[in-house]
Design goal:
The protein is of the alpha+beta class and about 1000 residues long. The protein is built from 19 helices and 47 strands.
Length: about 1000
């Protein structure tokens, strides 16, 4: 990269002034002035250099020297950020040169200028001024315009350089040299970098690959009309032919590396789109062919093999190792890292390779007990290891109740906090070991490939009680896990002021009386955390009621421990603790003062370095490299900081006004030229975001000509974009997506309390589980880009699929205007089999025999509009037969014809019959003679009800009314598929 930057500075940054008056200077004096100008430029005295270069352009000197000095004037203006003078002089310079080397160089500089300078200014007297320190006139955003000019400049430069490479063309008889070919190579790198940048997204000339032909390079010359992806790959590949004259092997290595990086970090430009053909239902038709292989591995291997002396070789080896590691081919990754360390011991990439090797070789052990396990099955453990072959599992009895009681007065200790109860380390917990009841050896089947291995093992049957499971290997890795064997469970229910606990048999659900229960409450009050506990016994119903701390507490957490003999359990009892001895390593705790910043804000960061060797130690007086990169990967901050006596570093930097939005990365590493350090392992907080909010200035409306159509019909949608003051947004870029998902509709009958509890409040969701409509984000059905017309409109047309399923097509529009402001809008087209739906509702959740019931039928369109139609309402009596009552049998009880009113409603007064299960069906036809059907079931429950002939859900609760007045008696029907089971019923307000 350093060589590339040198070339860019030497060959691409230039300027030309308008000569008002010639100055007579001798050739000798001119050469002295130019030499002094170059000297000042090298010393970064750019204003002094500018004055000297400018003096030469006004002198009577050779044409070449005048043009060369003019380019240097432009370069110094670029560095000095004198944008208005630069643009004016650049335009003049390009005009006075035609199809020569100077114009080619000027266009290259133009491309760099227009993608680098601030894309804003103020319009005064018809001209845009980029100097924003003078804020007179109309504010103008030039982002899109600048990116277009950058693109055209690079393309024009390529065109002229092609002419220069053809001796038969008349371009002032200029003969291409080795230097010129190097300039073209540098141009290719710069141009490809621009095409891969996110800024290219906003150029309206860009066409989506979904509309392009197959990606094939069909010419040996750059084609600006080819696909973006083709352009990028061509620019990299062309460098090899150019380098036959430039003769710099680094160019070829850099080309391979850049192309490999592009494949690895493709940011979406030129992505291969896949689209399902819904008409033929073919599986994922590719709209484009891949341009050869996009595997970066062969490219990086070629660098390592053919350009082993290049500075990119160690970085390529590191990249190869990282790719192999991501593919979990850890053996190949280790060999690659070792090759880097052996071949390039002085490379700065060695420390990175060592860190990756350390991560791969690190051992790990994790053991879980799968929660409280019943006594009638053999207990199981889940074990996951890495780089461990054999384990020994030892099971010790322990008195968990005694252990937990010891910490009841510690407000910072919970029942499920292993470290606080048993100790921070395994040796601390060993004092709670009692009788060893089991010891087994486990072979994890490690394949010595550095991959994690998981296994579930089954232990011998254990008696009820609590156990500590110690798992060890021969590499000082240990895990201590709590195992509980118990047949009791706790059900905990909490309201504002009370806690309701029930202790039950886990198999039968039977309440267990006289169980010891300790309830511990953790609460926050008076700016401190407190706790209290109470020990009680369950009553005859296995219940305990606990009064919480007064309602003024800010927050509280309730936990409970229950035991009876060897049977015990506690709430939230699924936990385990793992401890293993880690290798010596450095840890970095890196964080910023906030996660999100705005441009121009100051970022404060701190990094605390610790060394772990059994215990953590401070790392004072160490030099630490700190590098911060923006979302494009460009370094924006690089410093070497020294840790203080506590082993920490801190600094700050201010974000620029035009900071790129997105995720920024902070990376720290030791200054370790001899690579004697262990790796610095970062643990958290290395990223932060830069975002900016702007008030919307226009609105996007998405509307269909016909929001409801039939399957197979064509949908037409208008996207209208208007500024809030009324004028249309013309020539705005619109990216749209049509998302298809299943459409479910249900009519929710209103209630007098919907204003308080929301629509569909009350019993309806309980009565019919199908009412819980599933929400779907859907799949992409169509996608594309449009430009709004003079009325601010853009149109999307698509044919819907012929299907037996109802669908909705959501049209999502992202609109970007000329100021780069992005606003979103959405609309929906519903595609249904019928033009309306039928729904049946009852005035109660269930009935007793011989009550007066009101049945309501509602006919509604998908847009919730009432429909008038005539149909038949049929009532069937239902029962079930078969081994598990899986077969439904229906017998028609009555049938009657009805016509809906203007509100789409039908009311039917029904005298309920004897006990049983009844099915109501309303059937009619729409205007296309398609059958429209609605159905609903209802229970008639009385003293003679027999549940053996019916099929129930796992558990269902029905109330006779949707709402009640104070003092009313609520009738509740509870049904379950489990016979002779216990029901815990509670009411909450």
């Amino acid at each position: 990269m350093k060589k590339l930057k040198v070339y860019l500075i030497l060959f691409f940054l230039f300027t030309i002034p308008v000569v008002a008056k010639s100055i007579n200077v001798t050739k000798s004096e001119t050469n002295k002035v130019y030499i002094e100008a170059e000297n000042q430029f090298r010393k970064h005295n750019y204003q002094e250099a500018f004055d000297l270069y400018k003096k030469i352009t006004k002198s009577k000197v050779s044409d070449d020297l005048k043009k060369k000095s003019g380019l240097k004037v432009l370069e110094t203006l670029f560095i000095l950020k004198k944008w208005d003078n630069l643009i004016s002089d650049l335009d003049n310079y390009i005009k006075v040169n035609h199809n020569n080397i100077w114009q080619a160089r000027a266009y290259t500089l133009s491309g760099k200028i227009y993608q680098s300078m601030p894309s804003e200014g103020y319009k005064r007297n018809g001209k845009i001024y980029r100097d924003t320190t003078i804020r007179d006139g109309e504010y103008i955003s030039t982002y899109d315009q600048d990116r277009k000019l950058a693109l055209k400049s690079f393309q024009k430069s390529k065109e002229i350089y092609y002419l220069l490479q053809k001796p038969s063309q008349d371009v002032n008889q200029y003969t291409p040299t080795q230097e010129i070919y190097q300039e073209v190579i540098d141009l290719n790198f710069e141009f490809a970098n621009f095409l891969t940048s996110k800024s290219y997204y906003y150029i309206s000339d860009y066409e989506s690959l979904s509309n392009s032909t197959k990606i094939k390079v069909i010419s040996n010359q750059y084609n600006p009309k080819s696909d973006v992806k083709v352009q990028i790959i061509f620019l990299y590949d062309e460098i090899f032919s150019l380098n036959r004259i430039a003769k710099n092997p680094h160019n070829e290595a850099m080309s391979l590396f850049k192309k490999a990086s592009y494949y690895m970090n493709n940011n979406g430009i030129g992505a291969i789109y896949k689209k399902i053909n819904y008409k033929t239902k073919n599986n994922l038709d590719l709209t484009n062919d891949l341009p050869l292989s996009e595997d970066p591995i062969p490219l990086l291997l070629k660098i390592v093999t053919n350009y082993s002396n290049d500075e990119l070789a160690p970085e390529s080896l590191l990249g190869l190792g990282n790719i192999y590691s991501s593919k979990q081919d850890f053996i190949k990754a280790l060999n690659t890292y070792e090759s880097l360390i052996k071949k390039y011991p002085s490379s700065i990439k060695v420390s990175d390779a060592k860190a990756e090797m350390q991560n791969i070789k690190r051992t790990s052990l994790s053991v879980g007990s799968l929660g409280v396990q019943p006594s009638d099955t053999k207990p199981k453990l889940s074990i996951t290891t890495k780089n461990i072959s054999n384990l020994t599992v030892k099971v010790y009895k322990t008195d968990l109740v005694k252990v937990l009681k010891n910490k009841l007065n510690d407000q910072n200790t919970n029942f499920n906090n292993f470290n606080h109860n048993f100790g921070e380390k395994i040796n601390d917990a060993k004092r709670y070991f009692k009788e060893k009841v089991l010891s087994i050896d486990v072979n994890m089947g490690d394949r010595e490939d550095y991959k994690a291995v998981s296994k579930e093992i089954t232990l011998s049957a254990l008696k009820t009680g609590s156990y500590l499971v110690l798992t060890e290997d021969n590499k000082n890795n240990s895990s201590l896990t709590l195992l509980i064997i118990s047949d009791i469970v706790i059900i905990k229910n909490i309201d504002k002021s009370k806690v309701y606990l029930n202790v039950l048999n886990r198999e039968t659900g039977k309440p267990i009386p006289n169980v010891n229960v300790i309830i511990k409450e953790h609460y926050y009050t008076s700016n401190s955390y407190q706790s209290r506990y109470k020990q009680v016994f369950t009553d005859s119903n296995g219940s305990v009621i606990y009064n919480k701390k007064n309602d003024t507490t800010y927050s509280s957490y309730i936990e409970a421990l229950a035991w009876q003999g060897n049977q015990l359990t506690f709430s939230d009892a699924q936990y385990y603790y793992n401890y293993y001895n880690q290798t010596k390593e450095y840890k970095s705790y890196l964080f910023t003062d906030r996660p999100v910043y705005r441009p121009e804000q100051t970022v404060y960061f701190k990094d605390i370095i610790r060394f772990h060797d059994g215990n953590y130690k401070n790392v004072p007086n160490e030099k630490i490299n700190v590098k911060i990169s923006d979302p494009k990967g460009t370094s924006i901050y690089e410093k070497v900081l020294t840790t203080n006596k506590l082993g920490s570093i801190n600094d700050s930097f201010k974000l620029p006004k035009k900071a790129d939005l997105g995720i920024y990365n902070i990376y720290t590493s030791f200054v370790d030229p001899n690579h004697t350090r262990e790796a610095l392992s970062q643990s958290s907080g290395q990223n932060f975001r830069v975002e900016e909010y702007k008030k919307p200035e226009y609105i996007v409306n998405v509307k269909s000509d016909n929001p409801q159509i039939k399957p197979g019909d064509k949908a037409k949608v208008k996207i209208n974009v208007n500024y809030y003051f009324g004028s249309p947004v013309v020539a705005a870029k619109v990216h749209y997506k049509v998302m298809r998902s299943p459409f479910y509709y249900y009519y929710y009958k209103g209630s007098q309390y919907d204003w308080l509890y929301g629509s569909n409040s009350g019993y309806e969701k309980m009565y019919n589980p199908s009412l819980a409509q599933s929400e779907s984000t859907g799949t992409v059905y169509k996608e594309g880009d449009l430009i709004t017309d003079s009325a601010g409109n853009a149109y999307v047309d698509f044919e819907t699929e012929k299907s037996l399923t109802d669908y909705k097509y959501d049209i999502l529009a992202n609109v970007v205007d000329s100021s780069r402001r992005e606003i979103k809008g959405a609309g929906t087209v519903k595609v249904t089999q019928t033009y309306f739906y039928a729904f049946i509702d009852f005035d109660q959740g269930f009935y007793e025999p011989y009550e007066n019931a009101t049945v309501e039928v509602n006919l509604r369109s998908p847009d919730d509009q009432p429909v008038k139609a005539t149909g038949d309402l049929k009532i069937y009596k239902v029962n079930y037969t078969g081994k598990n009552n899986e077969k439904e049998n229906i017998n028609l009880a009555s049938s009657q014809s009805f016509t809906s009113d203007d509100e789409g409603r039908i009311f039917y007064r029904w005298k309920t019959p004897s006990e049983g299960y009844y099915k109501f069906v309303f059937e009619t036809k729409d205007k296309d003679e398609k059958v429209v059907k609605g159905e609903r079931y209802v229970w008639i429950n009385g003293k003679n009800f027999q549940g053996k002939s019916y099929k129930f859900q796992n558990i269902e609760i029905l109330t006779d009314k949707r709402t009640y007045q104070e003092g009313d008696t609520a009738r509740i029907m509870i049904s379950t598929d489990f016979a002779k089971s216990y029901i815990l019923l509670s009411t909450e307000t």
